[in-house]
Every structure is written in structure tokens, then in C-alpha cells.
């Protein structure tokens, strides 16, 4: 029995992570990525503890309203500055930090449910 969810054509799905990169919808990406519903982009934030609104510009500028922006902080969850969370929320998505593995899994579940979700992911080894 096939237990994989039906994934609409063109939807980005995170297939694997680790080794300093990601495999998203059949393509390998080295380093950090920003996964949007219809495409994946290289993401080059500064230090995870010093994120700014500009690090999320591609998400908050989306024509399709993203409801949830998952932030994969690396091997462990890092608290995001409350002012930054509020600034992102004022432009649409709720910013949810978690470790990168949890962010990848959560993104896939929400995307498969048809939710407008994006993930900003720090690569792990």
C-alpha cells in the first residue's frame, strides 16, 4: 500500500537533508535554502542569532500569501528575536523556529495538506 501523500505537480517537497545540503524535488542544493511552494532558492542569512527582516524578503514579498514560515535553525532550535517575529508576522506569515530536521518534516506535512507554507533552512552536517 502506498502511504505517501499525493503531491500536486510543481509543489516543492524536501526529500532529504544533511551533509551540508538538501534534496528538494529531485534537485540537490548545497548550503542553506529557502523552500517556497513553487521553487527553492539559495538562502544566505548571516548568523542565525542575528537574523533580520531582509533575510526573509523573498517570503514576505510573495504574491501568494504564506501563512507559516518555518525556520530550520540548524541542529537545535534557536529563539528568534520577538521584534523580528512580529515584523515578519505584520507582513503575513507566522514565523516558527525549530531544528532543521523538524522544519523539513513539518514543511512536507503542511505542504501536502495544501497549506501555504515556506521554510528557511540552515544546512546541517
Please give a structural write-up.
By secondary structure, this protein is of the alpha/beta class. The chain contains three helices and eight strands, in the order E-E-E-E-E-H-E-H-E-H-E. The protein has helices spanning 57-60, 82-89, 100-112, and strands at 14-18, 21-24, 27-30, 33-35, 40-42, 68-72, 94-98, 117-121. Strands 5-4-8-6-7 form a five-stranded mixed beta sheet. It has a three-stranded antiparallel beta sheet with strand order 1-2-3, covered by helices on one side. A hairpin with a 4-residue loop joins strand 4 and strand 5 (40-42). It is globular. The N and C termini lie far apart (33 Å).
List keywords for this structure.
20% helix; 125 residues; single chain; three-stranded antiparallel β-sheet; 27% strand; five-stranded mixed β-sheet; alpha/beta
List unreliable stretches of 5+ residues: none
User: In one word, what is the shape?
Assistant: globular
Could you tell me how far the N terminus lies from the C terminus, measured between alpha carbons in angstroms? Answer: 33 Å
Order of helices and strands: EEEEEHEHEHE
Largest sheet, if any? Answer: 5 strands, mixed
Strand % is 25-35%
Task: Let me know the average pLDDT.
Answer: 90
Secondary structure: helix percent:
10-25%
Widest sheet: strand ordering? 5-4-8-6-7
Oligomeric grouping of the chains: single chain
Structural class: alpha/beta
Number of helical stretches of at least 4 residues = 3
Annotation, overall tally of beta strands: 8
Cα-atom radius of gyration: 14 Å
Amino acid at each position: 500500500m502506498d502511504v505517501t501523500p499525493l503531491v500536486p505537480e510543481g509543489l516543492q517537497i524536501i526529500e532529504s537533508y544533511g551533509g551540508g545540503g538538501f534534496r528538494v524535488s529531485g534537485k540537490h542544493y548545497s548550503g542553506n535554502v529557502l523552500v517556497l511552494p513553487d521553487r527553492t532558492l539559495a538562502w544566505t542569512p548571516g548568523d542565525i542569532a542575528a537574523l533580520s527582516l531582509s533575510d526573509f524578503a523573498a517570503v514576505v514579498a510573495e504574491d501568494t500569501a504564506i501563512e507559516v514560515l518555518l525556520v530550520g535553525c540548524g541542529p537545535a532550535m534557536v529563539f528568534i528575536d520577538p521584534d523580528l517575529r512580529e515584523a515578519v508576522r505584520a507582513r503575513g506569515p507566522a514565523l516558527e523556529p525549530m531544528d532543521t530536521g523538524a522544519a523539513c518534516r513539518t514543511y512536507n506535512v503542511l505542504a501536502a495538506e495544501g497549506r501555504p507554507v515556506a521554510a528557511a533552512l540552515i544546512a546541517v552536517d
